[in-house]
Amino acid sequence: MPTPKQMEKLAAQAVRKQPTPAAAAFEKPLPPKYWDSVLKDPRADMTGAQLRQRRLSDIQRHVLRVNCRRCNRTVEIQTADAVRLYGQNAAWKDVAQRLLDDTCQQRTGRHEEDGCWPALEAP
Questions:
Q1: H-type helices in the chain, by residue range?
Q2: Minimal CA–CA distance to 85: which of 56, 113, 105, 109?
Q3: Can you name the residues that pair with 74 across neighbouring β-strands?
Q4: pTM for this one?
Q5: Distance in angstroms (rounded) separating the CA atoms of residues 112 and 24
Q6: What is the pLDDT of residues 18-40, one digit of tens each?
Q7: Cα 119 to Cα 26, 39, 69, distances in angstroms
Q8: For residues 54 and 79, is the Cβ–Cβ distance under 8 A?
């Protein structure tokens, strides 16, 4: 435990300490080119719910990936295989939940606690 004199010295040093250059860099506004590229991204128009509700036929990625927030497991499936198994009109959210539930390791016996919690990557 520091003595009162040491505590006063530390407090005086903290008051005199100026922000570091790295902290000052965050105060600068981002350049307009950055915001243009962010807003031109096709995913900028979609909300998270819209991304999760996308149909498999609308997804252009070759491989779909879903992570479980509970057990940190990752499941991947090719888009063509997902369409063949679940149909082209299946929602990505539903397919991801089925993929995790089929191989779930966290079974407690209680309906409220069973199963995996999907963390969907934007397709």
A1: 4-16, 21-25, 32-40, 48-52, 79-86, 92-102
A2: 56
A3: 67
A4: 0.54
A5: 47
A6: 566 665 556 778 889 988 888 88
A7: 29, 24, 6
A8: no
